[in-house]
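Help needed: design a sequence for this.
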């Protein structure tokens, strides 16, 4: 059995990887990646929730899950192309249909860090039994405000699910964070001291705030985003948690200086650069090698 000291060491190393993966170093050191350094796998477009402004259109939210052999091939292709940071997204990546696959694949790739972005519902209802002993998985739970605001965007009961998922992750001593999408309606609340206090009390280690490219009218402008960023700066050093504002990967926050740092692979293996433009298709990893697909990406000027 792994000792507590060894486990802490592994988890602190994982924290470094997690931080790098989520753009913290990029933000702090003003690093701009000129090549793809991070990739996100959309395991399924199915979801156990139904948020009104989900970027995945309703007609695509099927229960199809990426074939396990394709998932393994995608991870191998990332490794071969020096992509060390892998996000597992959905739809919802944690469901009965996906967790056994994640467990097997993460178990067989113990030195590959996987950052799961989840709505927290599966964890709240089931715990993380099948994933409990995986030390290469970190968790990012979406939360967009306090109860009323969050549930407005993510469905009734979702705030309570997030809170319960934080309790589970804390009790299991996992590396975990929060991801907050800033919108016109939650901007003041989600960037308030009270909200940060709550995240901190829940043991969140990395709190990410991001702006999504337009998926609905409630998305904020780049100027509003920068203004909120400036306003929050004095608060950031007051918390024993890492607060990542807008640095949650330029692939997540598509700003004008988006530098192709991240790519996305959908459940069929199609590759794209934009998170929200699901029609973009640079190639398919079931049929082509990633090296070939990456050659199509022009080096950005930023
Ligand atoms: S939890 Fe995520 S994937 Fe599911 S409906 Fe909401 S935004 Fe879409």
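Sure. Designed sequence:
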């Amino acid at each position: 059995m792994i000792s507590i000291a060894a486990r802490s060491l592994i988890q602190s190393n994982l924290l470094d990887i997690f931080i790098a993966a989520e753009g913290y170093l990029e933000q702090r050191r003003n690093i701009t990646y000129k090549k793809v350094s991070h990739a996100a796998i959309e395991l399924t477009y199915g979801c156990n929730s139904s948020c009104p402004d989900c970027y995945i259109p309703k007609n695509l939210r099927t229960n199809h899950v990426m074939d396990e052999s394709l998932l393994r091939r995608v991870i191998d292709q990332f490794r071969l192309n020096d992509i060390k940071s892998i996000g597992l997204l959905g739809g919802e990546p944690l469901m009965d249909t996906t967790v056994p696959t994640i467990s097997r694949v993460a178990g067989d790739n113990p030195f590959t860090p996987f950052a799961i972005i989840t709505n927290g519902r599966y964890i709240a209802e089931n715990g993380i039994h099948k994933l409990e002993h995986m030390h290469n998985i970190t968790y990012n739970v979406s939360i967009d405000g306090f109860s009323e605001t969050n549930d407005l965007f993510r469905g009734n009961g979702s705030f309570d699910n997030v809170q319960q998922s934080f309790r589970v992750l804390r009790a299991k001593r996992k590396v975990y964070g929060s991801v907050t999408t800033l919108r016109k309606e939650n901007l003041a609340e989600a960037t308030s001291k009270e909200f940060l206090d709550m995240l901190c009390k829940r043991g969140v280690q990395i709190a990410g705030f991001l702006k999504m490219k337009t998926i609905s009218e409630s998305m904020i402008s780049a100027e509003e985003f920068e203004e909120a960023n400036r306003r929050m700066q004095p608060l950031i050093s007051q918390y024993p948690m890492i607060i990542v504002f807008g640095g949650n990967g330029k692939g997540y926050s598509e700003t004008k200086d988006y530098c192709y740092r991240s790519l996305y692979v959908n459940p069929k293996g199609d590759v794209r650069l934009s998170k929200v433009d699901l029609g973009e298709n640079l190639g398919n990893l079931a049929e082509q090698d990633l090296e070939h697909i990456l050659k199509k990406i022009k080096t950005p000027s930023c």
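The first strand starts at residue 38 and ends at 42.
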